[in-house]
Task: structure prediction
Amino acid sequence: MLRRYFTSLLRSLRLRCPLCGQGRLFRGWFAMHETCSGCGLKYNRGPGYFLGSIYINYILTAILVTAGYFGMYFGTDIDRDVILWVSAAFSVAFPACFFRYARSLWLGMDLFWDPPEAKEFNPDESRGGQPM
Ligand SMILES: [Zn+2]
Result:
């Protein structure tokens, strides 16, 4: 089970289908493929499905901004206004850069805990639909 989890995690970090590791998740910076080219899995599992990825992105951003802010505030002599502007810029730029990984990690985590049913595969693109 642990091996399966790390396999799914590594595939997510490579922005590949967490189930088969073959298909790419994204076709652009923000645009996702609808199904996996390897196994035919439909990535969007329902309305509002990727809302959970926003939580991942938000939590990680909040942790990094908080740690960075206090680290610079107490650990350096940088002006407070500069620290504030750097933190504000980071809190806008980081979520945009991490967007794809947040979605990928969300998909991998969700597929691990809630494996897909046969109806979640596109039969036209499926090559057996065999996970991992
Ligand atoms: Zn796949």
Q: What stands out?
A: The helical segments are 2-13, 51-75, 80-113. The pocket of zinc ion is lined by residues 17, 19-20, 22-23, 36, 38-39, 41 (CB under 6 Å).
